[in-house]
Amino acid sequence: MTSTVHYPWRFFRAGGVDQVVLTKAEDISMLRELDQKLWVALACPTKGTEIDEKTLNLIDGDHDGRVRVPEILAAVEWLDEALSDLDVLFEAGDALPLSVLDETTERGAAVLASAKRILSDQGRQDADSIGLMDVMAVEQAFVATRFNGDGVVPAESAEDEPTQKAVTDLLGTVGSVMDRSGKPGVDQKLVDTFFEQATALLAWEDEGRTEAIHPLGDNTAAAADALDAVEAKLADYFARCRIAAYDARATAALNVGDTELLALSGRSLTLEDGEVAKLPLARVEPGRALPLRDGQNPAWAARLARFASDAVTPLLGERATLSESELQLLVDKLRAFREWRAKRPEGVVASLGLPRLRELVSGGLQEKLSALVAQDAALEKEYSQIAAVEKAVRLRRDLLTVLRNFVSFADFYARQGAVFQAGTLYLDGRACDLVVYVNDAAKHAALAGLSKAYLAYCECTRGAEKVSIVAAFTAGDVDNLMVGRNGVFYDRKGRDWDARITNLIENPISIRQAFWSPYKRLVRMIEEQVAKRAAEKEKASSASIDKAAASAATADQTPAAPAAAGAATPAGAPPKKMDIGVVAAVGVAVAGAATFLSSVLAMFLGLGIWMPVGLLAVLLAISAPSMLIAWLKLRQRNLGPILDANGWAINGLVRINVPFGGSLTTVAKLPQGAKREVNDPYAEKPTRWWLWLLLLLLAAAGVLWSLGKLDRHLPTSVKAATLLHSAAPAAPAAPAVK
Fold first, then answer.
1. In whole angstroms, how far apart are CA 187 and each of 155, 386, 387?
2. Hey, which bits of 305-400 come out as E strands?
């Protein structure tokens, strides 16, 4: 949508996005002309925000649980027609002044008349404004009446017991819809559905009341059921007999073979065994009739007996066998019933039974229920008038808030509490204001991680209640943030919840944190390695002690092992000396390390007064990569993915830069004017200054010695040139090899 009207819009720049300023009624009225590409949000859910959900449901025209731009514009247009002046939206207070309702429009006049009637019902005829409590009181009283205008009839709305029982029967079969009073009831659609199904079922039942369809009367169904139980197996038997008549050689193959009988002989058999049931009904012979008394497959004997008693004997007479032609005659006699039964109408009303359905249909209850529904629906206009007043009061109270959190994020950037901010999380000496409710933390994190923000997902509990939140940490450091840490979350209603971190999405918080992160990682790695080595040494030492203790405890029980020939070591033999190669290697290593340190120190000492600059250059060389990455990510830090993961449709990059991010998370600090007592009785004792001076002098002496500056004052045996040989800085260059 591109505007063709040159309205003098004003915009403010925040989060890297131009956002429209709404300060007067005309700004709101002209929103339909604002290019939709300039709206910060294009859609938001009706749940999970700090706006009254019922207000958002009133704006949600298609009732799909989401509010979109056309629905926002429709709400603005509706209110603009009802009110003579939209400036009331910018005034403090929730009540709707009657003076701003526009009597010159049909909508405004209707809302004004309904508002006056509501106030009159409340005994406040002289009031000049109407509040939401006034409307809700009348609405609740109206909803609680027998008829409330929604076209839904609960059982209690019927005056006589038969009609109430009919409503109950409908609720138990075709379902229910919710009445405005919160009770289940039936509407015209459910009434029509019930009686359509009931009428069809009764018509079907009447069609079957003939001798052609019920040749055995009430016993016909039992005969058909008995035939259904064995019909497929009967067809199999007579087909085998026909094939045997076609070729006598097939007779043996069509009966039970030796292999099948041998397989059955090794099993523990029952009459319900599936392998037994697969065998033919009886012995297959060309043209043989089926025996009904003897020689049957025992797995089918009970079903064949019921077939004979319920179908064969009543329809064909008593007999010991059944031929294929007799079976066909029996099927023909039951065909009409079986076809009729297959046409039974589908529907849930059959659970009431045919007698009850006939009573309901013939008793005129459909007309009674339809009349009740029509009587209730006739009050829809009266309820709509009350609902229109409620809508006007709610939009007067909430519409500007919706606009300041949809068209723009003015409330968010003004730090006035955006509707998506759930409250404040206090954890690790910080208060985080950018907190959002989440339904599925794992699903949310998959998208929210693209925000480039440091996010902490927390599970919050308050008694039996539980909610999940995600908080953005935008100031301080991350050293003490870890899964399992506890804090306290205060929601927008001021209620406190126990919060526990369940997941972290790590991203830089600040450039300062990125500067120190390499050194912190180095210290952490050294601590881990030292701890690991100490644990290994402790384990080896413990094992050695345990072994020595075990040896001492069993010394008198362990016989001395005979010494191997030629392997005995004299008791007074001196220990083996260290290999000269090891000494040389150690010397070379020490010399190399000393040379490196000497060259580094020489470089710094050579800088003179520029030594601090050199030190700063080294620090920057180490920290620059982390700082660069942090700078790039902080420039990309974006609120959009956090809200998109909750169902919003954010229309661009809503950035959270470093200064604004710092305001979203406040770090603990002493209040202004506070005094600190510096005498800590448990503070660690400081190291003496002379010890630091001594260490510094020793280090300087070491450097000077490694550089050969002290050689003229030292004996030859301890000179750097003697000990470091060619590695000494002052050593003469080796002669070139010719």
1. 12, 22, 21
2. 321-322
CA dihedral 40, 44, 48, 52 (to 10 degrees): 90
pLDDT at position 564 is: 46
Structure tokens at 490: 């205060």
d(CA 461, CA 49): 19
699 has a pLDDT exceeding 80? no
Tens of pLDDT, residue by residue over 201-233, are 999 999 988 989 999 999 999 999 999 999 999
Q: Please report, for residues 291, 616, 666, the alpha-carbon distance to residue 515 in angstroms, rounded to integers and kept in the order given.
A: 98, 12, 20
First to last CA, the chain: 88
Amino acid, res. 620: L
Note the pLDDT of residue 565. 46
Distance CA 102, CA 627 (A): 60
Query: What is the SS3 assignment for 18?
Result: strand
Q: List C-alpha distances in Å: 235 to 244, 332, 640.
A: 14, 15, 70
Cα–Cα distances in angstroms (integers) from residue 10 to residues 13, 416, 651, in the given order: 10, 20, 19
**Position 566 pLDDT exceeds 50:** no
**pTM of full prediction above 0.90:** no
Helix (H, G, I), strand (E, B) or coil at 239: helix
Write down the number of H helices and E strands in the chain: 26, 20
Burial 562-584 (b: 16+ CB within 10 A, else e): eeeeeeeeeeeeeeeeeeeeeee
The 8-class DSSP code of residue 83 comes to B
Identify whether the C-beta of residue 418 lies closer than 8 Å to the C-beta of residue 648: no
Question: For residue 77, what is the enclosing H or E element?
Answer: helix 69-82
Distance CA 419, CA 52 (A): 10
Are the CB atoms for 436 and 457 separated by under 8 Å? no
The CA distance from 224 to 97, in Å, is: 77
Please write down the HEC assignment for all residues of 211-275: CCCCCCHHHHHHHHHHHHHHHHHHHHHHHHHHHHHHCCCHHHHHCCCHHHHHHHHCCCCCCCCHH
Give dist(CA 338, CA 335) in Å, integer.
5
Q: How many CB atoms lie within 10 A of CB 284?
A: 24
Per-residue confidence (pLDDT) for residue 661, from 0 to 100: 79
Dig out the tokens for 370 from the structure. 């339809």
